Amino acid sequence: MSAELWNSAAHVLEINWTGDHMVPSRKLYPHQWSWDAAFIAIGLAYVNPTRAWRDLRSLFEAQWPDGRVPHIVFDPATAEADYFPGPGFWDVPAYANRPARGSTGIVQPPMHAIAAWDVYRHASAHGANCAQEARTELEWFYPRLVAQQQYLTGRRNLGGGGLASIVHPWESGLDNSPAWDEAMANVPADLSLLTTYQRRDLNNADAAHRPTDLDYSRYVGLVLSYRAERYDDHDLLDRHAFAVECPSFNSILASAELALAQIAGELGLSAEAAAHRERAQRITAAIVKRLWNARTGTFHALDVKTGKLSPAHCVSGLMPLMLPDLPAAAVESIMAEAKSEKFGISELPAPSYDRTAPDFDTKRYWRGPLWINVNWLLRRGLLVHGFRDEAEDLRTAMVRLVHRNGHFEYFHPETGEGLGAPTFSWTAALSLDLLADRSVPAYARAA
């Protein structure tokens, strides 16, 4: 099984390589996505470290002057009519020294420092030439990764409590998660927008699997609102209809600081390394203070505009397990949630949403189906806190799932059937990492 899966995964990454960057899939996602690039680079480094670095560089060449890394970097070879919302719709400001490729004005989870460090570890094992290349790449990426973190912990600290807010569900990477339902209910919905701005995702995907038109009209409306202010974050909480602190996004934010501590140490920047570790601890403490619900015993998304925690039990609430400084009681409670009938990590990986919820949907995107990337992060958390048997069970379940069903975008949470885009890049890339079975870096392990 291992050789067959390895070869099929490497083939997916070959056919999705454009010569400059990787696309998630050729038809449904013909551009470069931000956190996809990070997950892809981690696996791609095993078979082609030079491409892994190039893919990440291609993304960061579109970094904004304020430090934000856009959630999509558009391929100019793809026509505006072939993907919506394309660069013409986003109409981002023309900053000095920006590359020719356009981008969106929003972000995605900052997985990139984690990816850069993992690519460095994997690439260095390929020999002296790759090791030297990897060192050069770390030096190039470090200040850019720091700027990304500073943007998220500064301008996006909309709630003032030390966490980054997302201002669009797409920024979470978990687009139509039930975690946003209550906050999204307060966003005006105008279905006529979908007459002016026509969806094109349904040309290549089953409507029953994708976000609803009501959701999509709100997504478009939020972009138009942010675009009207030229994507300026000043007083954004007052001006914008959606601002949420996501436990998954902020857990990745803290983990990125830990990765930056390791990178800074490798570059001989000891004071900076210590500062990154301290920031990771502060973000962890803020996650516990602001997003923990003692009654439910898990983490929930916080609507910053209303001060209310979402009642939904989503896989995002398990992601703080990644953090080595998470209090022992919270670790124990997350493990109970992960093993409960809500998520039941056993024969199949964890679904994206509570299996017992009345609105659990086995096919609609982030409202039930299971995804390899968040389960990969969950496995990382299991290893961080020493749950090696559970981590191995989850690794085996993910490998078996992909081997049996293919490198799909996501999977049916009961049958394991592949759903969404086939030949999906991050599923292939993370399969390589799971087969290689490198344990989590020492810096991220609990003491």
TrEMBL record:
Lineage top rank: taxon: Bacteria
Segments crossing the lipid bilayer: none
SUPFAM superfamilies (alphabetical): Six-hairpin glycosidases
Example GO molecular function: hydrolase activity, acting on glycosyl bonds
Keyword vocabulary terms for this entry: Glycosidase, Hydrolase
Domain Mannosylglycerate hydrolase MGH1-like glycoside hydrolase, chain residue ranges per copy: 29-427
Keyword Transferase: no
Xref: PANTHER family: MANNOSYL-OLIGOSACCHARIDE GLUCOSIDASE
Annotated family: Belongs to the glycosyl hydrolase 63 family.
Identification of the protein by name: Trehalase family glycosidase
Organism: Paractinoplanes globisporus
